[in-house]
Amino acid sequence: MTWDDEGFLISKNKYNENSLIAEIFTKNHGKITGIIFGGTSKKVKNYLQIGNRLYVNYNSKNENKLGYFKIEILKAYSPFFFDDPKKLLCISSAMQLIKILTADSQKNINIHELIINFYKIIESENWIKEYIFWELDLLALVGYSLELKDLVNKDILDNKIIYKVKSLTGTKLIPNFLIERNNKDYTDVKTLLAGLKLIGDYLEKSILKPNNLNYPISRLQFTNSLK
User: Fold this and answer.
1) Cα separation of 200 and 160, whole Å?
2) Of 49, 80, 167, 226, which sits most exposed with the smallest number of CB within 10 A?
3) How many domains are contained in the chain?
4) Residue 11 belongs to what domain range?
5) CATH assignment at residue 15
6) What average pLDDT score do residues 118-123 get?
7) Is residue 46 part of a domain?
């Protein structure tokens, strides 16, 4: 089985002294795992940064056997953010979520387009706020839509609109920007962190734990970098 495609490097692990096992989310074949021979060489490893966009040629003897990639760089995104640790951590977090939440060998052009849009988002002024909505869009695409508007109750406190959700354990306030998505106002870091925590709690309790998956360390590192 042989095919050509393009995609984004979402994970890599050392296979032996000279090679890597990589996961690439491709446009037409979904998430694919394969070996990159010589992936640790100076010539290749510099552009094998998580999140970079690659042209791939994939070869495998059969569908049940691990194949191998021949790769070329299409666009190296990571070097543009080497001076911005928060955005580098955001890239790692986003790619790790793609790795965890997507199934092997299942084509999903919408997710491929979502990754392309991710790089537009982190160059925008309110990139953290937009990234939070990016996570919600990703969850929706993999079947775990969090429809907050259908869950909240609207109230007025001190002449300000608040949104809250009642549960068996009490009442939880929902950051306004998650409900008023089209509101262009800037949101402070404390409120953004509350939004990230809410989505993180949902991710852990409703998706990861039921499927015996660990919470992604890269997402934790990203949220911690914002504090």
Assistant:
1) 26
2) 167
3) 2
4) 2-76
5) 2.40.50.140
6) 95
7) yes
Q: What residue type is assigned to position 196 of the chain?
A: L
Q: What does the pLDDT look like over 32-91, one tens digit per residue?
A: 999 999 888 877 878 899 999 999 999 998 777 899 999 999 999 988 898 999 999 999
Pairing of strands 67-75, 53-59: antiparallel
3-state helix/strand/coil string of the chain: CEEEEEEEEEEEEECCCCCEEEEEEECCCEEEEEEECCCCCHHHHCCCCCCCEEEEEEECCCCCCCEEEEEEEEECCHHHHCCCHHHHHHHHHHHHHHHHHCCECCCCHHHHHHHHHHHHHCCCCCHHHHHHHHHHHHHHHCCCCCCHHHCCEEEEECCEEEEEEEECCEEEEECHHHHCCCCCCCCCHHHHHHHHHHHHHHHHHHHHHHHCCCCCHHHHHHHHHCC
- Assess whether 72 and 38 both reside in one domain: yes
